[in-house]
Design goal:
- The structure is a single chain.
- This protein is an alpha/beta fold.
- Among the domains are: 213 residues, 3-Layer(bba) Sandwich (FAD/NAD(P)-binding domain), CATH 3.50.50; 95 residues, FAD/NAD(P)-binding domain.
- It has ten helices and 18 strands.
- A hairpin with a 2-residue loop joins β12 and β13.
Length: 457
């Protein structure tokens, strides 16, 4: 019997989790592994964690995937995203603060990857053009553009794993008069450097994590004033004096924004922090996941397998508190199904299981605490039946809740808080200066800082 063949679309955290799941099976002695090809649009692994100065289109004319920007620091505790099988202690050999910059986290994420073993599966600069499924052969046909050869390639697969993420296609709303705004108008996806807005009056439209973090970055690097315009309710933090929140913009006249409360203000720049779209232009309707950013997308059995065709696998499509370990658990579960170690039930049983989770999802009141507990229960449901290492899911959930309280207490100082690892109990060190004063976010600069041993009450 011929081995199965699978396509993994994307070499970011989700795709790498899937590759590592199969590599773990190989190292455990499994001899019946599928043939794997991972198609990655960028020229390196890392997905969203790769910083690029480019916006719009990349060198090959493809939409730029990354939304990372200079000076970005983790906006959640590293202790909440620690891998179950690779700790921060193991990677860095010493304690570091709870909120490292992007480059430090990327170094950690890639640190557990055997790049020589993983990269043999990956074809870089190969964006996917189209995926089809043949009911008669029960096979997928995947067409990609290989920019290294300048030719399109087509191959046949038994399974397709969609690991392309859902934080790269901007949701760009329209406001009357914005086309005549004389300053800079951009989406958070294209934000790269807060220094661009030094001494500027900046308007942030949206009240998501990107709005609060980019607003904080602009404050840190010298914006004159920052206004956050919210649709339903304010974020509500105790912002510095030159930061404020106002209701949603109604329209623009020249450089002046008018708000629902009747106020107005002139601005130099507009930042749309209005979220992202699930965008799968390479999929026909019958294979495409139709959903929005939520805690449990519809149409996915176990949050992974496309109900209409369970050989179509989607990773990382939930709104997320938990990140890397959740992706691992999903990838391990998907691997076991592909290997035949775990069976996909019939359509009726799948729908019954999906209904249980959808009913729970619909019953959530929207609070962070309930969402965190819900996602923890989802992870535990998957974890109970796979050989991925157990990790303290609930303890990490409690850290998420503490993180939210810390932000309420001090939105500009929460990154100075320290937490103990739920894996090793190692206490994070303290930054040697306030976060607002540390301007260099490079790996080398951060690791050369004189970290301070945390004081425990």
């Amino acid at each position: 019997m011929l081995n199965k063949k699978i396509a993994i679309l994307g070499g970011g955290p989700s795709g790498l989790a899937q590759l590592r799941a199969f590599e773990a099976a190989r190292l455990a002695g499994n001899k019946n592994l599928p043939e794997i090809i991972c198609y990655e649009k960028q020229n390196d692994i890392g997905g969203m964690w790769n910083y690029t100065w480019r916006t719009g289109l990349d060198k090959n004319g493809e939409p730029v995937h990354g939304s990372m920007y200079r000076y970005l620091w983790s906006n959640g505790p590293k202790e909440c995203l620690e891998f179950a099988d690779y700790t921060f202690d193991e990677h860095f050999g010493r304690a570091i603060p709870s909120y490292p910059p992007r480059a430090v986290l990327k170094d950690y994420i890639l640190g557990r990857i055997d790049e020589e073993a993983i990269k043999k599966y990956i074809r870089f600069e190969c964006p996917v053009r189209w995926v089809e499924y043949d009911d008669a052969t029960e096979k997928f046909t995947v067409t990609v553009m290989n920019h290294k050869t300048g030719e399109q390639e087509t191959d046949i697969f038994d399974y397709v794993v969609v690991a392309t993420g859902h934080f790269s296609t901007p949701n760009m709303p329209y406001f009357k008069g914005v086309e005549d705004f004389p300053g800079r108008v951009l989406h958070a996806h294209d934000f790269r450097d807060a220094l661009e807005f030094e001494n500027k009056d900046v308007l942030m439209i949206g009240s998501s994590y990107s709005a609060e973090d980019i607003a904080s970055q602009c404050y840190k690097y010298g914006a004159k004033s920052i206004t956050i315009s919210y649709r339903s309710e304010p974020i509500g933090y105790d912002w510095p004096d030159n930061m404020e929140e106002r209701p949603l913009v109604t329209h623009f006249e020249g450089n002046v924004a008018y708000f629902k409360d009747g106020t107005s203000k002139a601005f130099d720049a507009i930042m749309m922090c209005t979220g992202y779209l699930f965008h799968f232009p390479f999929l026909p309707d019958e294979l495409r996941l139709d959903t929005h950013n939520c805690m449990y997308p519809e149409h996915l059995y176990k949050g992974i397998f496309f109900h209409d065709n369970p050989k179509m696998i989607y990773l990382g499509m939930h709104d997320q508190y938990y990140t890397f370990n959740k992706l691992d658990v999903q990838a391990w579960y998907a691997r076991d199904v592909i290997l035949g170690d775990k069976a996909i039930p019939n359509a009726e049983e799948r729908l019954a299981d999906m209904k249980i989770w959808q009913d729970r999802h619909q019953a959530l009141d929207g609070s962070d605490d309930q969402n965190i507990d819900f996602q923890a229960d989802y992870i535990l449901d998957l974890l109970a039946t796979i050989d991925y290492p157990d990790f303290p899911v609930k303890a990490q959930g409690e850290l998420f809740k503490q993180w939210l309280r810390d932000k309420e207490e001090d939105i500009m100082g929460f990154r100075e808080k320290t937490y103990a690892s739920t894996m090793t109990n190692t206490m994070a060190t303290e930054l040697p200066a306030p976060w607002l004063e540390i301007k260099d976010d490079s790996l080398e600069s951060f690791m050369s800082l004189d970290f301070v041993e945390a004081t425990v009450d």
